[in-house]
Structures are given as C-alpha cells and as structure tokens.
Amino acid sequence: MGSFSVSIEPLVSLDKVSYLYPRSKKLALCDISLEIHKGEFLGLIGPTGAGKTTLCLTLNGIVPQFYGGRFFGRVTVAGLDTVDHPISTLARHVGVVFQDPETQLIATSVENEIAFALENLCVPREEIKERIPRVLAAVRLEGTEHKHPHELSGGQKQRLAIAAALAMQPDLMVLDEPTSQLDPVGAEEVFATVRELNREVGMTIVMASHAAEEMAEYADRIVLLYDGRIIAAGTPDEIYAQIDLLYEHYLRPPQVAETFYMIGKRGAPVNKPPVRMREGAMLLDTLYQQCTIAAPKNLSMPVFHRGEPLLSVQDLKHTYPDGTQALQGVSLDIHEGEYVLIIGQNGAGKSTLVKHFLNLLRPTAGTVKIGGVEVGNFSVSELARRIGYVAQNPDNQIFSTTVGNEVSFALRNLGYSAKEVEERTVESLEAMGLLDVRDAHPLSLPKGDRARVVIAAILAMKPEVIIFDEPTTGQDFRGARFILDISRKLHQMGKTVLVITHHLYLMPEYAERVIVMGKGTILLDAPIREAYHQVELLRSTFLSPPQAVLLAQQLNHRERQDWKLLTPREVADCFVCHSNGKGGMV
Amino acid sequence: MSIKPAGEEREVKLLGGATVDGAPIAYLIVLAAVVTGLALIPLSVVLGSGKSFPMSQGIYPLVGWILGPIAGAIASAIGASLGIFIAPHTTTVPLATVLGAVMGSFAAGAMVAAGPRRNWWLPLSLLLFVIYGFYGGRAVLQNGVPVYAVVLGSFINWSALLLFLLPTRRLAASWIGHQDLRRVASGLFLGTWMAAGLSHLTAAAIVYFVVNWPEAVWLAMAPLAPLEHLARCVVGTVIGTGVIAGLRAIGLVKPAWAVY
C-alpha cells in the first residue's frame, strides 16, 4: 500500500476556468483554478448542479469541444491545452468513466469492449492483444474475456468500463460518480479497484462522488464545488471535519464525523471530528473517561399494526424461465399505514417480490393478495389505482412533453371527467411543488425534479400503496432527503409505503420496519431498531450498517447495554460532558 | 451572463468530437438504428409491388431536420440498408429503398431559409424534375399509360415537388424551428408531406423501371397513395414532435445544420 507518492509536478492545471453551456445564461464553472498532481487521488464533492460533471468533462476536452458554448481560461493535461488539442489526442492521456455502466458498454464481448477505443486510435493489433489481459488483471476481471458485457454484474460492468479506459494507458483517470448506480458490493469493488490503481500503480485519480465515508477513506485531497465555484479544498480530514460548511452546501458528512461533531456540541473535548471509522472508534474510547454516558431517552418505536393485512404473500415462489429461483417460499404480511424498508443485495429477490404486487410477474407457487383478493383478479387499471410504483430511473416512466400532461396522463386514460383530471393534476403538482413548471418539458428538469414528476403522476391516482424502488440512487443528499420526505408525508397521510434502497444511513428517520432479503428468502423481518443492529446478518448480505450504528454498538459493548441507537444524534445524546476549558468544539 | 469571468475567453471549435458535416457520429448511429428499427414495422400494402412499406419512411425527413442534409442522408442510408437485410418484407427494390431514404433526409435538410445552404433546394429541384420526367415520361411515352392516370397516381409526388418549389418549403422549416410545439407539429406535417413525397418519387421512379405497373394500378394509386402518404406524415409528426421537444428540453448538442 502507498508505494507511490504524490508528485510535486502538476499533471493537470486549471487556470481561471469558466464555462457557459450553449443557450444557458448561468456559468456552469466560474473562475476555477486548481492543480492536480501526478499520483494524487482528488475527490470532487458538491450537490447536484455544483459543476462536478462539467469540471470532469473539461479534463478531456468534451467541454467545450463537444458541447460548444463559451469557455474562459485554460486547462492543461500532461502539457496539452484541452481547447487546442482534439478529444482523440486527449483521450490518450485522460480516461473517463461515467455514472451508469450500462451506457458505456457497446461491444459484444469484454475483450472487444477494451479493444474498441484502441482500434480507433490505430494501436497495432499485437499491442492490443497484450494490453487486454493486463488491464483485465488490473481490475480483477480475468477469465471474462469472451463474456458479453451484459452477463457481468453492475460492479463488474463498471470495472470493465475502468479497464477500457485503463487500456489507453492514460495519465489521468476521471470517474464521475462511478458508484452511485451500484449496489454496495459493486461500489466496494469499484473503490477497491480505484484505490489499487492509485496506490499500487500510481495512477492519478479524479473522482466525483457523494459517498462521503469512502471519499474520506481513499482520497488524498477533496475539492468542494458549489454553484460552479471552488468553496474549499483540503485533505479529507480538513474538509469533512467542517460539518457546518458541508451542511451549508447541502452535503452529507461521514456519519462518524457528524456524530463526534454533535458530541463536541455537548461540551466534549473534540478538537476536530474524526472522518474515518477507525479514528472515531479510538476517540470514543478516550471520551469515556471525560464524559458521563446516559441512557437514551425517547427512542421512537414503530406503531404495531394489527388486523387484516393490506398486502399478503404466502409461500411465494418464483422461478424465471432460465431456471433462476428468484423467490423461494416467501411469506409476508404488510398492513395498512406501514412504512416498510426492503433491503438486500442485488439478486436477493426484492424487485421480483415487488413485481408480484404489481402483477407484472405471476407466482410459480404461492399467493399474493391485496386486501384479501388475489392480485391476478385485478385489471391493470384497478391495480394502478391501488398501487403506485416509482421506478429507480424516473426517465423510464416519463414520456409526455409537458409536466402537466405527464401527471394527468393516467387519469385521462382511466376515464375521469375533465374537471376531476384538472383538480387532481393541480393538487398533485402543488403537493410536489411543481405547479410553476407545469408547462415545462419533464426532461428539462433536474433528475430530482423528474422523480417528483413521476411521484406527482402516481399521487394523482390516489393509490393506497406506494412503492419506491431505489428512489435515492443517483441523487445527492438534498435530492434523496427531498424524495424521502415526500415518502414520509405520504405515510403521514395514511398511505402504505414500501421503499427499496441500499442507502441504509438515510432511512432511520423514515422507516418503521425492515425486511432483509437474501437469495430469494426473507432473512429478517423486524422493526428498524432491531434490524439495523443485526450487523453480522447485514454484512452477510453485503450491506453496510451506518457508522452511527457501529459507534452505538461500541458504546453498548462498553456500557454493557443494548441500546438500539440509529443516528449520530441519538449516539451523541448519550454523552453528558462538562466542558473544562479543554473540551468543546474548536 | 451576470458575472464576468476572470479568465481570457477562448475560441471554441467543435474540432474534437467525431462529426459528419457538423453532426456527432453518435447521433448518426442512433438515428440510423431508429430507421432500421422502424423498417421492421410495415404500415400497409403497396399495390404496385404487393409489398408493404415500412414505418421508417415517415421519419427520413425528421432525420434530415435533426442532422442536416448530408449527415441525415448518410444516417438514413445506413438505417435503410440495414433494414433491407433485417426486414426484407418491407423492401421492394433495395436500391430504391436506400436512394429514397437518402432523398427524404437530404430534401428535408435542404429546406433551410437562410445561411450558406439556402439555395441548395434549387439544383435539388431540378434533379427531382428530371426524375419525375423519367418516371411519368416512361409511363406515358413507353408504356402508354394515359397522362391523367399518371397525374392522379403520382399526386403525392408532384404536390410534394410543387410545395418544395413554393415558399411553403421555407414556411415548413421556420415552423419546425418555432418554439411553439403546435407550430412544430404543423411544420413537421407539411414538411413530411414534401420530403417524404420526394423520397417516394425517387424510390418509385426506380421501382417503376423494374415493375412497370399498368394503367389500372396508376388509377388505383390515385386514392390510396395519398392515404398512405398521410400515414407517413402522421408518423413523422407524432415521432418528430416528441423527439424535437425532448432534444430541446435536454439541451443536447445541436448538429451544425439542424433545422429544429
């Protein structure tokens, strides 16, 4: 580890860079000056719209050479000015990996995928044949040469995209939110690969990401972008310890830093919140000696639901035509008004289960009932009135040319009167804060707003159950919280809410009950406080418990208690500290 | 732009992206794939040859308006060529299919009202006159089909040519470039009537040299061909309005010679 060090010589230099997209009146980047050194791992953080992607695209000349627009200042990569040199030349020096692996893979085999760019750069055939096994080994994809890229898992696909970029032997690898669409295993695979490339091979890395815990762990330096400007730059310890700065710019600090920030606010001697878990664990040990630990008060407990279930699944089995047994005897009751979180690794059977609620899949064996009636007895329109489904990618559900038409589409097709269509449409748009953009094209809105369009369209149908399938994927912290706040609002309105997500740290404030799935079975069905503290079980299905839960477990171990704490605030509330002049936040 | 950037403004050239006549190659590939895909869908039976015509005929003009005349013609040619192999049931004479696709996109892309290409319509019109002369002339002079039958049977062709010569050509282009989507839809309908009609003329002229259909078919075509042509216009309008609205909304790079 760490055999390569950061060079003093800058590999990339941005000097007073500003950029205006065509037909835009607002600068996407504004007076950015930055140097990136050879061998450095630079993390770019910032909320959606901060300019992270635009900055990434200036490094290989796509901005401005592909997009056009107005460009100010100078970017040089390996001595080449990115405005004066064509993208094909810059591509030899800068490899780029984007958010969604699906959109980057075009060939019919793994080796062809890697060879594609090299062939376009007229690299000799023998040289290409030499490079393919080398880069596959670098991303640990040996043996997949002849596979179709679509046979690979999400993490493998993203690693293949990295391999294809790596084959060009670039000086710089730019990764734009490479893990945001991946499950925890895939994300871990990608981070491990990138870390290895950086530390073992000395590859210079620029990575934009919302994954605060991982960025704190792996990056050498963090640049905080907001509104196209650099707000702060420094080591992860310097940036992620500035909790107020992160809050101010709608960013999520690592939970360990947030926890100690809150403990510090209670008078504990925390000079600077640690940003990595191991340092947090050590600090927790020292704080015991200086603070009193009090039992937590008022831990919320979910309401226990009784009576007839709204959704009932009994001994459900589903086998796909290729023989995959996706569900193996699942039994489950969901009552009206519950907020249920369904978690599990990709392939655990979450989506297959949900598709049975929507009658998109028929059981191989077992029953699925809604309100006591077999789901197969409902027509599509009847089901649409009872269950709303928000898919992971809102764009897949959008097809109208205005927001208003999108929201009213289903209502018009279900035969509601014009007056009722209008009333429900306005009501839904108002609830989602979209009335002002009623006449806008849905695709002209940011992704978070597009998700709200889909939710508004579902709300207009007034369904009893609303299913959110990975609603926070690809969203920044603010966008994710916004969507989850909507889900809570719907829950408070009496709707039954089901959420599928890998982002466990987001859910304690929302979910009441957690269903952990693995290999087509239910591994655990418990209240959220119980479920999150089953750390070993979660890890066995490759889910990462939030750092606050891990700190709470350390606290429990020390205090010989079994407090089911979930959030940084709950952990911090256990510390009763008396500032003696040395303590408190500095 | 309310803030004045500190850095010196640079001259931006669209030199890095792989383009054909100012249209990114990626766009060409996508639209060629769409043409190929729509080639699989037959719209109706064409009397002259007993074959059906594909839905892709309705979007050749749209490809020209999005990519410009040259890139559009190339994309349509690629898409139509692939369509011949994967959907032979919608092809009568392969050469006619490809050249018809090329003409549909090229004529549409040439409907510009301003700029260095504003006069491209003129030589193109002359060429189309020649094609129409060969097509109708062969029917009347060589095959003895009455003039009235040829005029009735080729209504969609000569009406398209006439509209292309008149200011309606510019009108359609300006409507397609309008912000109001209702105008865009109207422009697409009118423009598709012209460009798809000229595409049909090019293809039909070639097919006629192979098939030489008799007077009865010319007469049967008189009411049916306009109906078929309306179907093309509806396809072009419906797909085109959605595509143009979407392209404008997501702010993707606009090809250099795009009309929308």
Account of the protein in words:
Chain A contains 22 helices and 22 strands. Chain A is of the alpha/beta class and 586 residues long. Chain A folds into 3 domains: 244 residues, P-loop containing nucleotide triphosphate hydrolases (Rossmann fold, 3-Layer(aba) Sandwich), CATH 3.40.50.300; 75 residues, no CATH class; 222 residues, 3-Layer(aba) Sandwich (Rossmann fold). The mean pLDDT of chain B is 91. In chain B, helix 2 crosses helix 4 and helix 4 packs antiparallel against helix 9. In chain B, 50% of the residues are buried. Chain B is mainly alpha-helical and 260 residues long. In chain B, the strands form 2 sheets. Chain B has a two-stranded antiparallel ribbon. In chain B, strands 4-5 form a two-stranded antiparallel ribbon. In chain B, a hairpin with a 2-residue loop joins strand 2 and strand 3. Helix content of chain B is 67%, strand content 5%. The two termini of chain B are 25 Å apart. Classes of the chains: A alpha/beta (586), B mainly alpha (260). Chains A and B meet through strand 1, helix 2, strand 4 and helix 3 of A and strand 1 and helix 10 of B. Strand 4 of chain A pairs antiparallel with strand 1 of chain B.
Compact summary:
Chain A is of the alpha/beta class and 586 residues long. In chain A, 36% of the residues lie in helices and 22% in strands. With 260 residues, chain B is mainly α.
Name the descriptors.
heterodimer, A: 586 residues, alpha/beta, Rossmann fold, 3 domains, six-stranded mixed β-sheet, 36% helix, globular, B: 260 residues, mainly alpha, Arp2/3 complex 21 kDa subunit ARPC3
Radius of gyration of chain B: 19 Å
Secondary-structure content class of chain B: mainly alpha
Biggest interface reads: A-B, 40 and 29 residues
Number of helices of chain B: 10
From the structure provided, what is the oligomeric state, counting identical versus distinct chains?
Answer: heterodimer
**CATH topology (level 3) name of chain B:** Arp2/3 complex 21 kDa subunit ARPC3
